[in-house]
Amino acid sequence: MLVDFYSLPEESRVWIYQANRSFTDDELREIQQKLDIFIENWTAHGSNLNAGYVIKYKRFIVIGLNQNLNKATGCSIDASVHFIQELEKDYHVDLLDKMNVSFKQGDYIAYKSLLDFKQMAKDKAISKQTVVFNNLVNTIAEFNDHWEVPAGESWHKRFLKS
Known about the structure:
The protein is of the alpha+beta class. The protein is built from 4 helices and 9 strands; from the N terminus they run βαββββαββαβαβ. The longest helix has 18 residues.
């Protein structure tokens, strides 16, 4: 059952899919329609899942699931991954590659391989204050408080010299 993402409880589970490029406005409209249909029909062992989504910065698809009502199962998680893989094919975009980092450079969202990010840190092209996207957050509360954070406050800090 599709619900407003912002109405989900803070302990709801989140999955963040980071695109390697921004979506166009037309692509966003199509993706939102596809997400509406997918989430409206998303189930776990025949039970509807209470879920919503938000798309941030035209490149992050964030799906939230209220697990207080029904928990995601292996099959329902597989279905969501399959759905995301279909989006990857349809829009020629990477959404599942976890070996990349997104961060803010002014108003621009930069997307770099982990190796390039490490090199930028070594070259001091980024700092502890650089805002990074911590896509490892697990709940809406963590998403709200710890998704967009200075690199010095996330797992990215291991690449930064003091």
